[in-house]
Design goal:
34% strand; six-stranded mixed β-sheet; alpha+beta; 6 strands; globular; 36% helix; single chain
């Protein structure tokens, strides 16, 4: 049994990237994440990303390294990282929610640690998650 790990981060869409790139990012990521046992949710408000994902520790760390190197977003900031006793997401893929209310993600961005994670999780039921 692999130890589960979770990460929550926020970042900004790079100025030279169209918002349409988000759909391409998610469609490519879903297959790889399913193979790696990573589940989670990516929320995008037209400018800001906030992503929470979980899975086996080594796979989660590898994904984080790829995200940090991805030039399609900037100002990546990890808000929470830690071990996890049980999955928070039961579906075996990455959900995508595009939100109109930019305040939701803007409120999470300055938070850190457990406070950021709890704020994100409390907003989750409001997100319209596309399968």
């Amino acid at each position: 049994m692999h130890e589960l790990h979770e990460i929550l981060y926020c970042s900004l869409l790079a100025p030279d990237q169209p918002t349409a790139v988000v759909g391409r990012i998610v469609s490519r990521a879903r297959a790889r994440n399913a193979d790696d046992g990573i589940t989670g949710l990516l929320v995008f408000d037209g400018q800001r990303f906030c992503q929470h994902f979980e899975g086996p520790r080594e796979k989660v760390r590898s994904l984080m390294a790829r995200l940090e190197a991805d030039r399609r977003h900037t100002e990546l900031c990890v808000l929470f990282e830690g071990s996890l006793a049980a999955r928070r997401y039961q579906r075996v893929e990455m959900g995508l929610a595009q939100v109109e209310e930019q305040e939701d993600l803007a409120d999470i961005h300055p938070l850190q640690g457990a406070e950021a994670l709890q704020r994100f999780l409390s907003l989750r039921p409001r997100f319209d998650i596309a399968g």
